[in-house]
Amino acid sequence: MSTLIKNGRIITASDDYVADIFIQGEKVAAIGQNLPVQADRTIDAAGKYVIPGGIDVHTHMDLPFGGTFASDDFETGTIAAAFGGTTTIIDFAVQYKGQAMQQALDTWLQKAEGKAAIDFGLHLILTELPDEALPQMDEMVRQGVSSFKLFTAYPGVFMVDDATIYKALQRTGENGGFICMHAENGSVIDLMVRRMLAEGKTAPKYHALSRPATAEGEATHRVIALAEMAGVPIYIVHVSSHLAMEQIREARDRGLPAYGETCPQYLFLSYDNYEEPGFDGAKYVCSPPIREKSNQEHLWQALAVDDLQAVSTDHCPFCFKEGRGPYPAQKVLGLNDFSKIPNGVPGVENRLHLLYNGGVLQRGWSMNRFVQLTSTAPAKLFGLFPRKGTIAVGSDADVVIWDPQARWTISAATHHMRVDYNPYEGMEVQGKAAQVFSRGRLVVEGDRFLAKPGDGQFLKRGTHAL
Ligand code: URP
Ligand code: ZN
Ligand code: ZN
Question: Cα 12 to the chain's mean position, in Å?
Fold first, then answer.
């Protein structure tokens, strides 16, 4: 199958020009003006942007959490991603205590098998790392799982100590892996949570009040120091606060290879959402929590000047009230105890919409910056470039035709994520994916999904480079 996309304004992280793109099979075969080719299908993209498919490097499909599972699985979640113009996700396989890393990887590959509608990679979450398991890290990198997430939070579940983090960091200096850190001071937070509950403070807002930004700033500072001692790069996931971002900026100013992502919830929502009436604040319970509004502009600015390098979603949806698909209401698990509210918010479908509006339309970002943050930098950081993350001859034909004029309203009534609410409900936005190609296949056209679950491939990733 071949496709000719004519007259589109092609945007990469560095280029911006009008030309035709010829896609043959899974790859971009030619780019030029008035290409003299015959294609099976021709699309006129005049007046539209043609951008590389989005890459969301932080999703949790089907994640077991707090006695339930994230309500999107690899099928529903990747279809929703595609509707939003994202053609690659990197999800997280969890190595539980006592498990071999291979077991974790196999479990998550099985979850995705026959379901993923777009290409996907996997990071590995490490919950322990005895010395004898270190060679397993090398084996994961060899199999294309070249990044690992460790936590300084969630004691008793995911949290590891500093020595374990240091050991993992050091090993990546030998095997080319890359460490991603969830940075919050879990021990202190645990104490604050128990104290609040003992005082009868059970409402959703206490989730945020028991996880102060200082606990994130401290842990971010600490893990960057560990990476500095180990002499390796580090990536801080879901940066939520000005304070945590400042730790990354300061390290980068000293020349250290410290990187960070933030997520739409930290750019568009605020602590005020936790104060919504009744139990509604539970919709926004995620970790780190959403901060005071004053943090937002610092994060936007950090994205503009490369103090933060990527925007992911940390997509981890749990149903709120009516339930959707096989899932009943899930956030209600914490109706009488905020610490039992499953942590996470949906977002994989709306990342590009939100960033286009908040970044390009409202803050005057170039389209190049938008592409850099949503596709190119994620591809480079996580070993997918130049196969993914750009539009170039020889790259995978993961291409989005973006209609910059489309005006519409975000709503759970029309979104494709398998969750019964949308944190951005009612937001009027401009810009939408008109057509989406994944390795040359037209997977989305307007409101129609044209691919089939299972078409997505597991991506064996290389090592990071930025
Ligand atoms: O609240 C969140 N972020 N849930 C997903 C797990 C994680 O820590 O990323
Ligand atoms: Zn996390
Ligand atoms: Zn996460």
Answer: 20
- Sorted by where each begins, the domain ranges of the chain are 54-361
Inter-residue long-range contacts of 64-68, CB under 8 Å, 24+ positions, other chains counted: 64/94, 65/316, 65/318, 65/342, 65/343, 65/344, 66/333, 66/334, 66/340, 66/341, 66/342, 66/343, 67/333, 67/340, 67/342, 68/318, 68/327, 68/330, 68/333, 68/342
Pairing, β 234-236 against β 178-182:
parallel
Q: Is the pLDDT of residue 466 over 80?
A: no
Judge contact between 349 and 414, C-beta under 8 A: no
Q: What is the pLDDT of residue 423?
A: 98
Q: How far is the CA of 381 from the centre of ligand 3 (A)?
A: 17
Q: Is 316 in the pocket of ligand 1 (CB under 6 A)?
A: yes
The stretch 306-331 carries a mean pLDDT of: 97
The highest-level CATH class for domain 54-361 is alpha beta
- Residue 465 pLDDT level (bands cut at 50, 70, 90): confident
| Mutational test site, ligand 1, from 286, 318, 340, max ligand atoms within 8 Å of CB | 286
pLDDT greater than 80 at residue 30:
yes
What percentage of the chain has pLDDT greater than the value 90? 99
Q: What is the DSSP string of 384-435?
A: -TTTSSS--TTSB--EEEEEEEEEEE--TTT--SSSS--TTTT-EEEEEEEE
> What's the confidence (pLDDT) of residue 80?
98
Q: Is 286 in the pocket of ligand 1 (CB under 6 A)?
A: yes
Confidence bin at 461 (pLDDT 50/70/90): very high
CA of 44 to the centre of ligand 1 (A): 41
Cis (ω within 30 of 0) for the bond into 288?
yes
pLDDT of 178 above 80: yes
pTM assigned to the model: 0.98
User: Phi/psi at 287 (nearest 5 deg)?
Assistant: -130, 130
